[in-house]
Amino acid sequence: MVDDSGMSKSIQPQQTAAFYAQAVASFGISLTAMTVALIYLPAQPWVRAFLALGLLYTVTSTVVLCKVVRDRQELSDVTTRVDQARLDKLLTEHDPFKVDS
């Protein structure tokens, strides 16, 4: 895609509202189901507390992993855009018909 200035624009991926809602609902339902299962689990309180702590650790580490993956992807996109800008500048400044005297 080319804008009015002649530079190319990258196409940004879009998320639909339905996809976002499905992801949020899925996370909420699974977390609620696990919490209810831990509450009604026929086990001693320390066993339920240990499993709840494991669930909390899994959820927090998943959120951190998602952030790291997103940040790495954004860094890759920025690096690609900077490299593309440098290449565009070199190509616009290059004159193949220039004769050195």
UniProtKB/TrEMBL annotation:
Task: Cite the Pfam families for this sequence.
Answer: YiaAB
Q: Which residues cross the membrane?
A: 17-40, 46-66
Query: This protein's superkingdom?
Result: Bacteria
Q: Which GO terms describe its cellular component?
A: plasma membrane
Which InterPro entries has this protein been placed in?
Answer: YiaA-like (IPR038972), YiaAB (IPR008024)
Every YiaAB two helix domain range: 19-71
Q: Which UniProt keywords apply?
A: Membrane, Transmembrane, Transmembrane helix
One GO biological process term: DNA damage response
Name the record gives this protein = YiaAB two helix domain-containing protein
